[in-house]
TrEMBL record:
Pfam families assigned: 2OG-FeII_Oxy, DIOX_N
Annotated keywords: Dioxygenase, Iron, Metal-binding, Oxidoreductase
Biological source species: Stephania cephalantha
PANTHER family documented for this protein: 2-OXOGLUTARATE (2OG) AND FE(II)-DEPENDENT OXYGENASE SUPERFAMILY PROTEIN-RELATED
GO molecular function: gibberellin 2-beta-dioxygenase activity; metal ion binding
Domain of life: Eukaryota
One example of a Gene Ontology biological process annotation: gibberellin metabolic process
Name this polypeptide is given: gibberellin 2beta-dioxygenase
The EC number(s) this enzyme carries: 1.14.11.13
Family membership: Belongs to the iron/ascorbate-dependent oxidoreductase family. GA2OX subfamily.
Domain Fe2OG dioxygenase as annotated: residue spans: 166-275
C-alpha cells in the first residue's frame, strides 16, 4: 500500500506536521496515528468522509451569527461557560481577540440553544446536529484506530466515552475578526486570538476556513504555523488522552494568533470529545504494563474539569494529577 502520511518540510526548514489519509490501509493508518500522537500530539486527516456540504452549512450558520449586532449576540446569554462569549476566556482573566459560541454537543442541548441563537432555529439546530454527528463519528473512528495502533484489546477503550449518551463533549465556533472589523486595537489584543493552552478533553477535531493563524508547539516548545486547509481536519491530543496513555502521548499546546494583517476573518469549528462527568480516567493497563507504574492517579472528568476551570488557560493542569 502507498505511504499514507507525509511529513512535509516547511520552506523555513522546520518540520511540518503529519497528514494522514484515512482512505488508505487501516493498519498502516493506525500505526501512523500512534506515531503522530507520540511525536506531535497533533496531525491532520484528509479523505475523512465528512461531507463538504455539512461543513459549509455549519460555517455559514456561524458567520451568520457573528455578523449580528452585539446586542443580538449577547441576548443568547453568557451561560457560564456555555453560550456566547467575546474576548473573555474562562473565568480567571484570560483574554483574546475572539468571539465564540460554546455549546454542549448533544442534540437536546443544541435544540434548546438554537431557540435563542437563530430566528430560523430549526435550520440552525439541524445544521449543527448534522455537523456534530459527522465529526463525532470521525472522532470515534480516529480513537478506534489509535486503540488498534496501541494494541489495546478493547478497540472501544477510548471511543466508548464519547459514544456514551451522557458524554460531556462540546462544540465551539471561534470567530477571529479581520483586522478591519476587529473592535480591539492591536496593542490591546497583543496579537493573540486564543492564547497558548492544551485541551482538557480526550481528543479535539478542529476545522477552519482558509485563513491562517493556528499554531501548534513541538515538544521542544517551538511554535509551528499550521497552514490552513478547509478540506482537512486537525486532530489534537487532549489532556485525558495523555492520562489514558500514561504520558506516551502528550496533549498538544496550541494557540491562535489574532488577525492583525489579513482582511478576512478566520472561523474555526471545534469538537471536543469528552467522557461523561462521572467517568473514571486512569492510565490503561496495557500501556502501563510496558512502563511499570502509573504516572497519574485515577480521577473523574468532573474533578478534572473543575480543576481546569479553577486555573488559567495556559496552566499545566494534568501535573496536579501526577502520582508523587
Ligand atoms: C480550552 C478548550 C475548550 O475550548 C474549553 C476551554 C474553556 C473555556 O473557554 O471556557 C477553558 C479552556 C478550555 C481551558 C482552561 C479554562 C477552561 C477556558 C479556561 C481558561 C471549552 C475547555 O474545555 O477548556
Amino acid at each position: 500500500m502507498v505511504v499514507a502520511s507525509s511529513i512535509p518540510q516547511l520552506s523555513s526548514g522546520a518540520v511540518g506536521f503529519p497528514i494522514i489519509d484515512l482512505s488508505l490501509d487501516r493498519s498502516h493508518v493506525s500505526n501512523l496515528m500512534v506515531k503522530a500522537c507520540e511525536d506531535f500530539g497533533f496531525f491532520k486527516v484528509i479523505n475523512h468522509g465528512v461531507p463538504k456540504l455539512v461543513i459549509d452549512g455549519m460555517e455559514k450558520e456561524g458567520l451568520n451569527f457573528f455578523s449580528k449586532t452585539d446586542l443580538e449576540k449577547r441576548s443568547v446569554g453568557l451561560l457560564k461557560p456555555l453560550g456566547y462569549g467575546s474576548k473573555n476566556i474562562g473565568f480567571n482573566g484570560d483574554m483574546g481577540d475572539v468571539e465564540y459560541l460554546l455549546l454542549h454537543a448533544n442534540s437536546q442541548s443544541i435544540s434548546q440553544a438554537s431557540k435563542s441563537i437563530s430566528k430560523n432555529s430549526a435550520q440552525f439546530c439541524s445544521t449543527v446536529n448534522y455537523y456534530t454527528q459527522a465529526v463525532k463519528k470521525l472522532a470515534c473512528e480516529i480513537l478506534e484506530l489509535i486503540a488498534e495502533g496501541l494494541w489495546v484489546h478493547d478497540k472501544y477503550a477510548f471511543s466508548r466515552y464519547i459514544r456514551d449518551i451522557d458524554s460531556d463533549s462540546l462544540i465551539r465556533i471561534n470567530y477571529y475578526p479581520s483586522c478591519i472589523d476587529s473592535a480591539a486595537p492591536v496593542h490591546q489584543s497583543h496579537g493573540i486570538g486564543f492564547g497558548e493552552h492544551s485541551d482538557p478533553q480526550i481528543l479535539t477535531i478542529l476545522h477552519s476556513n482558509e485563513v491562517g493563524g493556528f499554531q501548534v508547539a513541538l515538544h521542544d516548545g517551538t511554535w509551528v504555523a499550521v497552514p490552513p486547509d478547509s478540506m482537512g481536519f486537525n486532530v489534537i491530543v487532549g489532556d485525558l488522552m495523555q492520562a489514558f496513555t500514561n504520558g506516551r502521548f502528550k496533549s498538544a499546546r496550541h494557540r491562535a494568533l489574532a488577525n492583525t494583517t489579513g482582511s478576512e476573518s478566520r472561523i474555526s469549528i471545534i469538537y471536543f470529545g469528552a467522557p461523561p462527568m462521572h467517568a473514571m480516567v486512569y492510565p490503561i493497563p496495557e500501556v502501563v504494563k510496558h512502563m511499570h507504574h502509573s504516572l497519574y492517579r485515577p480521577f473523574t472528568w468532573d474533578e478534572f474539569k473543575k480543576t481546569t476551570y479553577s486555573l488559567r488557560l495556559g496552566d499545566q493542569r494534568l501535573d496536579l494529577f501526577k502520582v508523587l
